[in-house]
Structure formats: C-alpha cells, structure tokens
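Request: Could I get any protein with tokenized structure?
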Amino acid sequence: METVTMDLSLAELRRGARAVPVESVDRARLAAARRRLDTAQRRWLDAAGFDAAAGTFCLLPDAQGRAARVLAGVDADEPLWAFGALAHALPEGNYTLAEEGVLAERELAALGWALGAYRYVRYRAPKRAPARLLLPKTMLAALTPLVDAAARVRDLVNTPTEDLGPEQLADAVLALAKEHGAKTRAFVGEQLLQAGFPTIHAVGRASHRPPRLVELAWGDPKHPRLVLVGKGVCFDSGGLDLKTSEGMRWMKKDMGGAAHALALAGLVMQARLPVCLTLLVPAVENAVAGNALRPGEVIRTRAGHTVEVDNTDAEGRLILCDALAYAAEQQPDLIVDFATLTGAARVALGPDLPALFANRDDLADAVLAAARAVRDPLWRLPLWRPYRKLLESYLADFANAGSSRHAGAITAALYLERFVPETTPWLHVDVYAWNDADRPGRPKGGEAQGLRAFFRFLEERYAR
C-alpha cells in the first residue's frame, strides 16, 4: 500500500510570512465587515454582488491589485464545513485566518479547509495544488494528526480492490506498526483453521487471495488493554447470494471499518495514550468459486457457537465474530469495532450518521458527548434483545441473518454481541465510510466518520 496522501493545505504561520486573511462573515454581520474595508474594496464588493450567503466568497484586492482579503460567507452553526470548499476555490497561495470573523471555532474551520483540500492522487494527477492555510504552530500540531488520519481512511477506502486485497490491507497494518514500533503477526489461509478462526476462513476461502487475520500489538502490558477491530472485506460480491451489479459497484469500500480501526490505532500510538493496544483486522475477499461458502452451511465459530449461514452476503458479521471472540480472550478494558455492516443503518440514519451500539450506557454517553464536542456526529441505536428471535435457527445455535427485513442494523449488532462477554465493555459502529457526491469538505469517495469522536473519547477515557 502506498503512503497516505500528503496534506499540502496546511503549514505553519511564521513571522513575516505574507498571507491573505480569510474572514468568515454571515448576512447579519456583513455590514460590520464592510466597515473594515476601504472605499475601493466596498465598491468591488458591491460590483461582485457578494451578500455573504453560505458557501460564497469574494476576493478583495489592495491598491496594487494584489489579493488583500477574502470574505467567506458561512453558516456560523456549521463551522467544520464553513471553509470546506476554499482550498480548491481560491487561487493558489498562502492564506490565514483573519482575527475578525463570525466563526468562534477557528480550529474546526481550519480542519474543514484541510479536509476539503484532499484529493486521491494514485491514478490521476491533481489539476492544481490546494490553496494553503497558514496556522499558528500549536493549532497546526493539533490538527495535523487528525488530517493525516482522515486521509489514511480515505486513501484506503478509495483504492480499488486489485490494489487493495487482503494482503495489501495487511501490509497497511504492517507499515503502521513499523511507523510506531509495534509488533505484528498474521494468520493466513489454512493457518486460520489451525489457529481457531473458522468463520474468517469460511468467508474468504473462495478467493484466489487468501484470507487472513492481522494483529498489531503496542504499549505497556501494565496499562489498560484496548482492542480495536475493523471489518476488512476488501471486496464483497455477496458470495453465492450474489449482489446485483448496482449493489456490487462500490464494494471496494467494504473494508471501511478496517480503515477506521487502523487510522484510530495510529492516532492512539502517535498520542502515546497509556493503553496496551491491540488492533485486529480480519481481511478477506467474499468471492464466488467452487469452494465458496454455501447458504445453509453450519459453522462452529471460535467462541464455540454454531451458526447457520442464512445469507452469504451477511459475511461481515461472520469475520468479525471470530475477531471479537479473540479480542474478548485478552480480557480487555474496552473493545471497539468498526464495520460497514448493514444497508439498514443507512436507511435508518442516512449516509452521514454512523450507528453506535453499546453494552454500557455510560460508554455510549461518553462517546456521544465527545462526538458533539468535536462536531463528528454519531447516533445511538439500541441492542434490543427481543429481536434476537429474528436470528433463530432450527438446527444451529442461531443464524447469521433471517427472513425478516426489519431492524437489520440492530439484529447485526445483536449477532456480534453474542461474542462479547457481558462483563466486557464493548462499542460497535456501523459506518458508511463514503460520500456519494462532492460537498464542501467532503469530496466524493472514501470518508472518515466518527474517527475524531472516538479519538477524543479515548483521550478522555485514558487521560494521563
């Protein structure tokens, strides 16, 4: 896997550097902003017809015709995306945040600038460099890890399957481990059966690229143990329960959960949080061949439960259940898993709201508070245990799916919950990891969702 996209949109503001100030303004306070301009600039503003509508901007010249100031129309209630389009809308050059402006959360505005500057460049050269925002050293230091982590998720999710199969996804974990001095090991192909990961093997056995489970370990064993788990289905054909062509088109992104877990692990290690970290990535391709997993098969999982395969397209929960069982064996302080698990979560919450499930109310409350603080939304759905009956099987302990189309995100989470002991704190995130279309700060393609929220939560939970 190639290195993540380098962020060229943020740099340190040094003394004496020339940069054009960008002032955020809304319609209610446009008159106050006008009073700070000279007569020629006010005439220019009038000629441009700038009315401070959100998403618009006006570049103002000085007496020599050079760029002197930018007025950017914003919605003050949406600071994160207020400057999301400016890195590619403004001319190339250096800009800085004006002292004046309606946005109270300047750091969020700068983050949105950088997130909007992202372009995936592996197969196509960018048309231009982004405009660069110069920031104070402390603000730059706080934002750079978050921007890099978001780019890591986006790069991984955007990469087509021929260049990001199970082996390449494992290589991304190995590269992260090397970067932070962590240890790794992997169980590949038939080794999965020997080591006790039968469901991971069953899902991935039909691909010409062997399935695997990659494990990263970092930190002091004396510290609380944190386990991050990410669904790594590098392509999902649906298996013998084959998807339609439309349903299969974007299934390179079905490893978005692994991308999130990997990026979050990187943030944890870079911040040197006092935890004993384990990252687990079950990496497979759900393919079709003569030895493919068949509907109606029964698998005895690592945890000893027997599972009837009702649907081979409900494969993510199968690879996760062995990983979760293995995580629980480590008796961790906390398990967090990320997965692009169900379309039902998208029907319920749409593309921008990841579904959060938790087996502790205090855990859910803490994560949601962190999400609100950093403007990285999540929405809790219930582990409504009466719905377990929707996964009943007539010949196994339970099935991986059922005939009912009701509560699909909840039943998937309930399936996973069976592999986590009640005494183990656990959080599950059903994430889309994708932007369907270009929006300010959110270019079409892979997306990091809930990543900053969880990092803030972990920082607070494991504060030094």
Summary: Residues 220 and 436 are 41 Å apart (CA to CA). DSSP finds 15 helices and 20 strands in the chain.
